[in-house]
Amino acid sequence: MLNFNVMKKMKNYIYPLLMVLLFVRCTDVLDIDDINNYSPDLVWNDANLANAYMTNLYPMFGNWSTGADRTSQQIAGIYWYADRITISNGEYKNWNYSRIRLINQALIDVNAGTLEQEVKDNITGQALFMRAFTYFGMINYHGGVPYIKEPQDRYEDDLYVARNTTEECFDFLIEDLDQAIALLPESIGTASGDYGRIDAAFAKAFKAKVLLYKSSPQFNPSNPWNNAYWQEAYQANKDAYESLKGLGYGLVDDYSDIALSERNPEVVFSVINSYPNKTAAWDHGVRPGSESRGPASACPTWEYVQEFPMIDGKMYNDPSSEYYMTEEEFLQNYWENRDPRFEKSIVWNGKIYEVSGKAGKRQYTSLGIAHELDDFGINPKAATNSTNLDRYTGFFILKNSLLNLAQPEVQQYDVDYVVMRFAEVMLNYAEAANETGDQAAAISILKEIRERAGIMPGDDGLFGMSVGSREEVREAILAERNIEFSFEGHRFWDLRRLRMLDRLDGTSKHGVEAIAIEADGEEQPLSEARELANTYSLVEDNFKYSLLQVPRSGVQVSVLPETYYFFPIQQSIIDKNNNIEQNMNWGGTFNPTLE
């Protein structure tokens, strides 16, 4: 097998050749007009070209995105305006048969070539996983789709195929994953030149995730928690958890290291980034504008700040918490005694934030005190207007940031993008265990996650959780996922598969304005406050805080109707193939659920 990292460097040279030979043109519809000219004798008899072909499919796994959780309450911006999704527009349409065709072509041609059998098996395993991964995205969006397993020929094949049922699609998908698991290496070590390729460990973990979706309320609305699919999900998730744990996967000691310590034991699968060949848009999207190449594109909301528990694992407004506070008390002291993941994930006004190697630096957001690219507020005494009121909140993202990068270097961010980590494998298992009666396993995992976070165990050893019933454990798992996977793009999809989008529907978002005050609570003259801020002498307690709704203009309330549990097939697809039925929840006849 050719070294994967060497292949990454060869890509710049091989890719143009492959584009000419293989990818004459692609469309986003079901290959009715997309017949690629293809030379299997050239590619599948040469290990270098065969592996280059596969390398060029790996971008399907994505990369860091600052807006990954803009769809939830975690990040500012009203993403879900009324009629964001319609049948005719391109929003939330996933019909990726151009990629499916390339994958299917590889599956056919690799076994007709003269490569060594070990190479053929490995490429076949990767391709089968990629096909399942691609179809899962489509099924999650739309329900059942045409599950095409061979390249379509416009002269000989029936291109106007109908949708497979959702159940058939899940069956085919699991079949592909099982075959992939059998062909792929059990686990690719961190020192291997093939690190970053798909292995059986990732395939097992992904299969378990797929079955969690299959059993979920999204696909089983009339029997969400007691359907027969939960047992299958439990067995797969238990197997994935135990198998990966046996291979040495586990939680890293420090939550700050989940991505910044690359190739750590928690990483199940990652996309390899390496400056200057491949970088990601993270640091220059989360840093305050004064430390970046422009304004931050993603800022945490007050709603999300409230959702982090206290250090004892309980919420600030829980009367049984040692750190109980009223709403007003919490607003004026929200940074104190929090779950340690809060400090490791979020930057707030007055927090020590030693970005760009600036020792002792504190970050300010107060209007009239902070840099104009960092400020947030409407304080009339500042005698200036903030230009950030529609995009900022008074908070910034710290998680996964490379603070050592100097301001001119922020676009050199090349931390490997973690697609799946062992914490997700654990919480997926906990969810399936709880729904099938194994609450003890679920609670044990929750305790392990919270212990790693640094939450106090308490006298009862439950780390602040109320987990007496199945429903309470379910809510505890969902709450833990919300915090553990902050800004990683999980929250909206978790609520959607659990049919809980009503928790986002009709909601608004807020930020926090900070105004410097004297010891007696009176507002401090801004000239004095600026002078103190220049030496980082103002701390959090030197400010008073108030809430501001964000954005300040335009759409301010999220709208997520019931129809969003399955997105529609785009009308242009149906117009080209009248055998494709529209989903029932969008005026058609196709049932996208498993019922």
TrEMBL record:
Claim: Lyase is one of the keywords in the record: no
Localization: Cell outer membrane
GO cellular component, one term: cell outer membrane
Domain RagB/SusD: 277-586
Cross-referenced InterPro entries: SusD-like_N, SusD_RagB_dom, TPR-like_helical_dom_sf
Keywords for this protein: Cell outer membrane, Membrane, Signal
Superkingdom: Bacteria
The protein, known as: Starch-binding associating with outer membrane
Species: Algoriphagus zhangzhouensis
